[in-house]
Amino acid sequence: MFLVVASVVGSGIFLTPGPIADRLPHAGLIFAAWMVGGLLSLAGALANAELGGMYPHAGGDYVYLREAFHRLAGFLVGWLSFFAIFAGTVATLAVGFSEGLLAWMGGPGDLAIPLAALTIVLASALNYVGVRWGARFNNLTAWVKVVALLAFVVVAPLTGLGDAGNLLPIVRGAGEVATPMAFALALSPVLFSYLGWNASIYVASEIRDPGRNLPRSLFLGLAICTGLYLALNAVYLYALPIAELRATSNTGEAAAAALFGGLGGSLVAGFVLVSILGTLNATILVGPRIAYAMALDGLFPSAAARVHARYATPSGAIVIQALVSVGLVLVLQSFPSALDYTTFAILLATMADISALYALRRRQPDRPRPYRAWGYPVVPALYLVANAAIAGALLFGRPREAAISLGMLALGLPFYLLLSRTGGSRPLADR
Fold first, then answer.
1. Which parts of 69-155 fold into alpha helices (H)?
2. Which stretches within 240-338 are classed as H helix?
3. Which of 273, 276, 253, 274 is nearest to 264 (CA)?
4. How remote is the C-alpha of 391 from its chain's centroid?
5. pLDDT in tens, 112-142
6. What is the C-alpha to C-alpha distance for residues 327 and 297, in angstroms, rounded to an integer?
7. Structural domain of residue 404, as residue ranges?
8. Looking at the chain, which terminus has fewer C-beta neighbours within 10 angstroms, N or C?
9. CA 413, CA 303: separation in Å to the nearest integer?
10. The domain that contains 334 carries what CATH number?
11. Pairwise CA distance, residues 283 & 300, whole Å
12. In degrees rounded to 5, what are phi and psi of residue 173?
């Protein structure tokens, strides 16, 4: 559950409310967007809970697509997840953390890149020596996040320095300030902020009693995150009028400064750094399981399939992810604005997951399912249609970012052809 919380609550809830308010300058629509994002994530969690219970193995959606369709389908989704979603997120968070830390401490900015690389190495080493150590650090940062955010939500109204009128209107005038296209585009940063709700499916093979605990971790973790997000947006609107909210880059810091003064803004800026570090650790914990599962099928360098004899972790995959992430840091050189690019990749992967759910219900009706997706087949279909609509809006409204995601996906094809010629595959039941 805390792996989900730590994966979801990172930088998004502090950095995306400004762009969301700019696309939806209406209090009621802002709350509606965050609620829709939570419901869409819940619909995805319902499907992934069934899939994860059926295949409690490392690799997540790579495994589901491989078993439902073909190794190529699993490879492409795993490829996109590893290189576009996880390694890219690790690099982005590490650079954001290092830049923010240096700014907070007044250090020289030219140290950001080496500090980001060092952060990746240290966090990867923590997860290398055991999933328990990584999980303990993850749980600690998750507790800090939840307690600090709840304290912020409770104390903020007591200052009396905000304006409850900023929370209105809820319904009136919504159609005058936003179109369906604007709402769909606003869901991109919202869904980015929910990124990580399926984190526990990637470590299903290392969860005790996954048929019971995997669905619970998804539902409880997502419920905590959705509640926190709605409460935090209420605080942001209480502290800042819509016009000011639209212009903020770090909404958490701006709201804290408005309610508690400069010291409050500085403390929240420090908390944002802790939050980013926790999400970075959770991403490093999850990502290597994709490369590990692909390597077992001969669709990734064999070193990624290596399990450490003492620590029982996918040590080879952890090292590979660290090297790729450090390489991306050296290329990016700054905290990139990759929100729509990452969200488009996530939409492609989650749409593929839902397709796998339908295919496996038809092809393997007798396979044990400790949990069956609630509302099947209607709820998954609605989720699929909603994701396709958002992806279409991004393709039309943000063509450059969508094209980069599609290009990364297409880049996997020649690698699949090369690796499949030499790689082997063992049936899942033999592992």
1. 71-80, 87-105, 112-128, 131-155
2. 242-245, 251-260, 262-286, 288-296, 315-332
3. 253
4. 17
5. 889 999 999 999 998 888 777 767 777 787 7
6. 25
7. 2-422
8. C
9. 21
10. 1.20.1740.10
11. 19
12. 80, 5
Cis omega (within 30 of 0) on the bond before 301? no
SS3 420: helix
Cα–chain center distance at 337: 15
Residue 430 lies in a domain: no
* Integer Cα distance of 408 and 398 in angstroms: 16
Q: Closest Cα to residue 335, out of 106, 21, 115? A: 115
Structural domain includes residue 429: no
**pLDDT value for 427:** 40
Residue 427, in any domain of the structure: no
* Structure tokens that stand for 87 in this block: 């390694």
Token pair 């690796």: residue: 419
What's the token pair of residue 308?
A: 């450490």
Q: 74 φ, ψ to 5°? A: -65, -40
Chain mean position to CA 54: 23
Q: Which two tokens stand for residue 290?
A: 């994709």
| Concatenated DSSP letters of 219-255 | HHHHHHHHHHHHHHHHHHHHHS-HHHHTT-SSHHHHH
Is 121 a domain residue? yes
pLDDT in tens, 233-277: 999 999 999 999 998 877 888 898 899 887 877 887 787 788 788
Retrieve residue 319's tokens. Answer: 């090292």
Residue found by looking up tokens 């929240």 in the block: 268
Q: In the numeric block, which tokens belong to residue 114?
A: 């080496």
